[in-house]
Design a protein that fits this description.
binds fe (ii) ion; 2 domains; TIM Barrel; alpha/beta; 4-stranded mixed sheet; 8-stranded parallel sheet
Length: about 425
């Protein structure tokens, strides 16, 4: 009889299988079957509830997170005031405060079963304080959280002095991915030129690309087309992501019918950020107000990898959030009207397996041979997990429990009624 480090009994899996036992040894999944015959140093009874691979956030800003109110609150709530406010805060930043806020956010993430994050880091401040801080954080959290960093020219690659040289210096220091923000350059032509320069830089260095792309309501903002073009030209298929792409919400339908197949052919992934898109876009509209989120179901139907990102938590752009990717997916499925059963499951994938592919995570998944990174949820399936934004009963990293939360129990004191409400029919 095999002796395991950890055995999780009676799990439901996201693919619909139930009654599964997961055997873990030396940090990896070594067995996955019903009625596994084995002894283990430690065991967990999942009681038929869902065990999933961890949540993954494909789009975040860890240098700005938890800075809400510094140096003041965003009064208009707009993207542009947020960028201006971040500009006011930047000169006051210290490395110690950046590290402390990022580590605190990583604590929140772990508690919510979020164990991999791609974070953009602003490189426009020539001191590269935030780069140094987040490189330090990346190493410190490595045992429990995979942090991937994107060199992000927040103030524009061509618009901000020294941005290109700063971006190269950030990559030299070990930042993982090439970022960009073409719609924030001064002209469409400069935006296109920035996409070309950044894709060529990524190709030279063998790096992935993830650009803030067309984050506006302008239907003529078409940098995603340029991004797909250079991806194909340079052979970067499968390595490039367009983040936000909110302009696609407002584009002409005929143009989109040409654009989506191009994105698919170029194997460019798309990350929508529903909490932020729904609050920041449509700000110049009266009524009806646009939702602003990109065309998620249409992109998914074409075979494009589409993930949902959190983008912001308590920062100059967004005052709410807690690192809960189920909240992100819950908003995403509402905004995209993805309420069918398969569509809701696709929204769960958009905060788990799909962003894992986009980040290129190795050993991710609930399969024999994968690293034993798992989350036990107080839910029976992905749809119930979304509906209830389920409690993370246990969060496991490489076979070790690193966070737990007591089950949510609602007690009732009502004549002739049950003692608890369990929110299930
Ligand atoms: Fe962003």
């Amino acid at each position: 009889m095999a002796m395991l480090d950890l055995l999780i009994r009676n799990c439901a899996l996201a693919d619909g299988r139930s009654g599964m036992d997961i055997g873990i040894q030396s940090g990896h999944i070594v067995a996955l079957q019903p009625a596994l015959v084995a002894d283990a140093a430690e065991s967990i009874d999942a009681a038929g509830q869902l065990v999933t691979a961890p949540f993954v956030d494909a789009h975040f800003h860890m240098d700005a997170t938890l800075s809400y109110g510094l140096p003041r609150v965003n009064r208009s709530g707009t993207l542009l005031e947020g960028i201006a406010l971040w500009g006011e805060l930047k000169p006051q930043l210290t490395q110690e405060a950046l590290v402390e806020r990022a580590l605190t956010y990583c604590d929140w993430a772990v508690a919510k079963g979020l164990l991999a994050i791609r974070s953009h880091v602003d490189i426009c401040d020539s001191r590269l304080l935030a780069v140094d801080a987040l490189l330090h954080v990346r190493e410190q959290v490595k045992p429990y959280l995979d942090l991937q960093l994107v060199a992000f020219p927040q103030d524009g690659l061509l618009r901000a002095p020294d941005a290109l040289s700063n971006l190269k210096r950030a990559l030299d220091k070990g930042v993982d991915v090439v970022g960009g923000i073409p719609h924030f350059e001064r002209t469409m032509a400069d935006g296109s030129e920035s996409v070309r320069l950044l894709c060529e830089l990524a190709a030279e260095r063998g790096l992935m690309v993830d650009m803030h792309c067309d984050e506006s309501d302008d239907p003529m903002s078409r940098h995603i087309e340029t991004l797909a073009f250079h991806t194909q030209r340079l052979g970067l298929q499968g390595l490039v992501t367009g983040s936000h792409v909110t302009s696609m919400h407002s584009m002409d339908n005929y143009y989109v019918s040409k654009l989506i197949p191009l994105i698919r052919e170029a194997e460019v992934a798309v990350v929508a950020n529903p909490l932020i898109n729904i609050t920041l876009q449509g700000r110049h509209d009266t009524y009806p107000k646009r939702r602003g989120m990109t065309r998620v179901p249409e992109l998914m139907a074409a075979g494009v990898n589409v993930a949902f990102g959190h983008d912001c938590v308590m920062d100059p752009w967004y005052s709410l959030g807690s690192g809960d990717m189920l909240e992100v997916a819950h908003m995403g499925l509402h905004v995209a009207q993805m309420t069918g059963q398969d569509a809701m499951r696709a929204c769960f994938d958009a905060v788990t397996s799909t962003p894992a592919k986009i980040l290129g995570l190795q050993d991710y998944g609930v399969t024999v041979g994968c690293r034993a990174d798992l989350v036990l949820l107080q839910a029976r399936d992905p749809i119930e997990a979304l509906r209830l934004r389920a409690t993370r009963l246990a969060v496991i990293r490489a076979g070790h429990i690193i966070a737990s939360t007591a089950p949510a129990v609602a007690r009732l004191i009502l004549p002739g009624r049950p003692a608890q409400a369990n929110f299930r029919i």
